[in-house]
Write a structure and sequence with these properties.
Pfam families: M20_dimer, Peptidase_M20. This is Aminobenzoyl-glutamate utilization protein B. Residues 208-299 form the Peptidase M20 dimerisation domain. By secondary structure, the chain is of the alpha/beta class. It has two domains: 21-200 and 316-455, Aminopeptidase (3-Layer(aba) Sandwich); 202-313, Alpha-Beta Plaits, CATH 3.30.70.360. It has helices at residues 2-31, 33-46, 54-66, 127-148, 168-175, 227-241, 280-301, 320-333, 340-350, 382-386, 408-414, 417-439, 442-455, and strands spanning 70-73, 82-88, 92-98, 152-159, 183-190, 198-199, 202-211, 250-257, 268-277, 304-313, 374-375, 391-397. The N and C termini lie far apart (72 Å).
Amino acid sequence: MKKSLLLLVALCVFMGRLGFAQQEIVNELNQKYAKYTAISDKIWQLAEPGYLEEKTSELLISELTNAGFEVQRGVGEMKTAFVATYGSGYPTIGILAEMDALPGLSQEAVPYRKAKYVNAYGHGCGHNLFGVGSVAAAIATKNWMEKAKIKGTIRLIGTPAEEGAGGGKTYLVKEGVFKDIDAVLHWHPGDNNNASPNSSLAYRVANFSFSGLAAHASASPEKGRSALDAVEAMNYMVNLMREHISPETRIHYVIKNGGLTSNIVPDYAMVEYTIRNPTAQGLEEIWKRLMKTAEAAALGTETKMSYEILAGLYNLLPNDILAKEMQKSLEKVGGVKYTPEETAFAEKIRLTVNSQSLAPLTEAQTVKPYTSGLAFPASTDVGDVSWVTPTAGLSTATWVTGVPAHSWQAVACNGMSIGHKGMMNAAQTIAQTAQNLFKDTKLIEQSKEELYQRRGTKVFEYKSLAGDRKPPLDYRK
């Protein structure tokens, strides 16, 4: 009885210390609120595109270096990619930090459309907040580890070019950056607070080029072989194929080159295709069928076909063990509470959103309940990371409820206080989750077992869905 009482007292003391340590992290991040929001605003102003985030990368590296991290630059043949490390030994916990912006979304931080620069980039996905929030979490975790003499390693991975055909993380996975990381934490800006695990769609994008014979379209059309005919034939067959694919599969295309003038039989044409499927295996099956339509189009029009894979991403593998820990931390942190000025901003910007029904503004203040089995109908290069190490992420309400990603409305929110509050909530959540994992490494081992079960194997040989392609460093130039 006496022994049991002593154990209970010791447990209470431990839990009390853990709670105090978490409050220390919260206090540190609150004290640095102005500092981190100023950095995120500077990156928001820079709005650098994929693989060109040079000033952004340097800002993040500077903060980490000053905080005592060792930084490796230019990882995976990508100038703006970096890995910042503090500590040594087991466990190693990684935190992802994205950086790139989107084309055509330049916007002032106002609740109406007002481009800062014409046809310029803007942070429509909130990566100015993503990168800084993750750095803030890593530094807060490092400071706690140092003070409490915690064994282990915290590693911040600066990941460029998530958007479009960039796929920066896929090249970091190929480089082996994640092979010795025991768990990965990340977050993403959004219009709600949610840590439930999601799956996503595996993805591949490729250009199909057709070469024919030019000729006078009126005087001697019989001498020509139209490359545009081949593109249109391929598109027609793909559209017929849609009836015979799974409902979850997505196929989109755009003709990028259809010839120069209607009076010349086009001798060159190109179409870009994006395909998506819930699994990498399903994606490969759709890819084989897509290839057959391209080959058939070339055969039927007497043209020559070539293709280039631009990017390929795995589907996300959810991890309930890690996600539940992140949910606990998010529930402690809570949602985003608006001032009267922020409420006025939110109400104005919601009037510009094309939606039949909008959730109440108060949803930003709450945390969505934990739900398993969710499917995100889009793609992310975090998926590749999730296949090689246990991975969990969350979203916080950096955007007004109802505002979609990749919109000028999101850019506006990302450059003002609503976005700042969501960013710091994410930083607190990630730091507290990392702290819990360092304190209880059994959770990490359990998350690895879950990964093996979902993957179907303990030993996994990663093969990029982009093939042998090197980082497309000029894809935004």
